[in-house]
Amino acid sequence: MERWEGRLAPTPPFSLALTAGYQTYFQGQVGADRFQNGVYSRLLVRNGRPVLLQVAGSSSPEDPNHPLLRIQVVAPTLAQEDIAWAVERASWILHTDADLRPLYTRLQEDHTLRPLLPALYGLHPPRMPSVFEGLVFAICGQQVSSVVARRIRTALVERFGEPMDWDGQVWRAFPSPERLWETGVKGLREVGLSQRKAEYILDIARQAVEGSLPLEALAYSPSPEVEARLTPLRGIGRWTVEWVLLRGLGRPEVFPAGDLALQRLLARLYNHGSPLSAEEARMLAERWGPWKGYVAVLLFAGARLGLFPSLR
DNA sequence: AGCCAGGCTCTCG
DNA sequence: CGAGAGCATGGC
Q: Whole-angstrom Cα distance, residue A154 to residue A167?
């Protein structure tokens, strides 16, 4: 096993605890992501070979205003290109170059969120390593509760993800389209997916393998184009596309107003508890302008961390 | 026990 | 078109 160590300087403010914590639902592990003892770990696959990424803070306690990360890359063999690629992937996932200051400026007038900003300071909206993973991840979360979604996502990785032994642990990558395609409906149902969702995922995996669906090229495409490419896919509706855009690709302006949990949060925090329709939620979010997507992330983070006194 | 969860498709008026 | 059934699993 070969190992490389380096540094990463995110755009301040940046908090690894919050950013990697959010990526793992503040639960330590979800899917292929782990955040344990202050170290964010993720096994990736490059050209069919495993590459383990580990990121830790360089000071303790961390100082979001002067962030500096230590990054370690581990693989059976490591070429220069592998290292550059791994560093780029780490920056992508942790969204280290996101600039939060305009968001914070806008939220100065938000009486609900402003009190939480100190506790959420430096939370960069993390992203999924691939568009494929973002899509599968979102499909797993359709309709079911977040607890069920987490279980299924993790089971998918535990069952089908390529393993790598290192440091006394087994690390697993998110399964490739090829791996899921050969798994078939039966295998996917064994991790708790419905017949329908298994078919959606296999359909997408097959198209990705065949090359008829250039998913990864969408990572830097304009949001409307991503929506136009993904919505025609079976099993992909507006909710799923918006979560891929926000949670998978980190688009600041995409607000998943159709999300039931988000609607309920907005109802309690901004509408005196009265239920909101998707359209009402979308209109309400207009006040956050091009940052409404990041606001959705803050709302979920605040809720998961129990930061809203009124939700107790 | 039964209903609802961070939706979507398919079917039927 | 709009409404409604069905889906997997876990928690309340």
A: 21
- With a cut of 70, which residues of chain A have pLDDT below it? none
Told to judge if A167 belongs to the known catalytic residues of this protein, a careful annotator would answer no
Other CB atoms closer than 10 Å to residue A73's CB: what's the count? Answer: 24
Q: How far is the CA of A184 from the C1' of C7 (A)?
A: 18
Out of A33, A165, A167, A259, pick the active-site residue: A259
DSSP codes, A8-44: E-PPSS--HHHHHHHHTTTSSEETTEEEETTEEEEEE
CATH of domain A2-99: 3.30.310.20
What is the widest separation between alpha-carbon atoms in chain A? 57
pLDDT at A311: 87
Architecture of domain A101-115+252-312: Orthogonal Bundle (1.10)
At the fourth CATH level, the homologous superfamily of domain A132-248 is: Hypothetical protein; domain 2 (1.10.340.30)
Q: Is the pTM of this model over 0.70?
A: yes
Question: pLDDT by residue (tens digit) across A260-274?
Answer: 999 999 999 999 999
Contacts of A27 (CB under 8 A, 6+ apart): A150
The residue extents of the domains of chain A are 2-99, 101-115+252-312, 132-248
Amino acid A186 CA to nucleotide B8 C1' distance, rounded Å: 20
A138-162, pLDDT tens digit by residue? 999 999 999 999 999 999 999 999 9
Q: In whole angstroms, what separates CA A129 from the centre of its chain?
A: 8
- The CA distance from A90 to A138, in Å, is 21
Question: Would you say A131 and A244 are in contact if contact means Cβ atoms under 8 Å apart?
Answer: yes
**Which chain A residues in 133-152 sit with Cβ < 7 A of strand C?**
143-145, 147-148, 151
Structure confidence at residue A312 (pLDDT): 79
